[in-house]
């Protein structure tokens, strides 16, 4: 049987860095999501509380779109600044995705408020696509 001490020592020495990076990534994600909700013209939580599926789809797409690049950044980060800087870039790209879809479809916020799921699904998929491309660029 092998000695478990090296594994335990590795865990104990790496755990503080792991927790710090995870906490920073989570805070960056929450801050970016909060800023995204503040900048968008409609109140996602109020709409979701009222049963608006389109708002839930749109906000869920934003949450995933912000998390995917941060996750890959977290996997390859060398320090906390990596996470914070790329979290900011990710937010900007998600806002651009929102504006791009708004440009393509027109009146995106009004469509989400009207519970138009087709617009929200398209927006969520565009956010996921941007997130995948951003994540690959961050990881590359």
What would the keywords be for this entry?
mainly alpha; 86% helix; 140 residues; elongated; 6 helices
Structure described in brief:
The chain has 140 residues and is an all-alpha fold.
Can you offer a commentary on this structure?
This protein is an all-alpha fold. Helices cover about 85% and strands about 0% of the residues. It contains 6 helices and no strands. The protein has helices at about 5-40, 45-50, 55-75, 80-105, 110-115, 115-140. Helix 1 (about 5-40) crosses helix 3. It is elongated and about 60 Å long. It starts with a helix and ends with a helix.
Percent range for helical residues? over 70%
Rough shape? elongated
The strand count comes to 0
Beta content comes to under 5%
Distance between termini?
A: 39 Å
Unreliable segments (pLDDT under 50, ≥5 consecutive)? none
Class based on secondary structure composition and strand pairing: mainly alpha
Arithmetic mean of pLDDT: 88
The main sheet comes to:
none
- N-to-C series of helices and strands: HHHHHH
* Radius of gyration over all CA atoms, rounded: 18 Å
Number of helices: 6
Q: What's the layout of helices and strands?
A:
Blueprint: H1 5-39, H2 44-49, H3 53-76, H4 80-105, H5 108-113, H6 117-139
């Amino acid at each position: 049987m092998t000695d478990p001490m090296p594994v335990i020592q590795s865990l104990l020495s790496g755990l503080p860095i792991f927790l710090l990076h995870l906490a920073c990534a989570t805070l960056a994600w929450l801050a970016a999501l909060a800023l995204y909700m503040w900048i968008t013209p409609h109140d996602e939580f109020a709409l979701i509380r009222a049963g608006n599926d389109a708002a839930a789809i749109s906000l869920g797409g934003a949450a995933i779109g912000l998390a995917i690049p941060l996750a890959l950044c977290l996997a390859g980060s060398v320090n906390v600044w990596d996470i914070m800087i790329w979290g900011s870039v990710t937010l900007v790209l998600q806002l651009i995705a929102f504006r791009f879809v708004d440009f393509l479809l027109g009146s995106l916020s009004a469509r989400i408020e009207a519970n138009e799921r087709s617009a929200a699904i398209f927006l969520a998929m565009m956010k996921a696509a941007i997130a995948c491309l951003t994540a690959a660029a961050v990881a590359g």
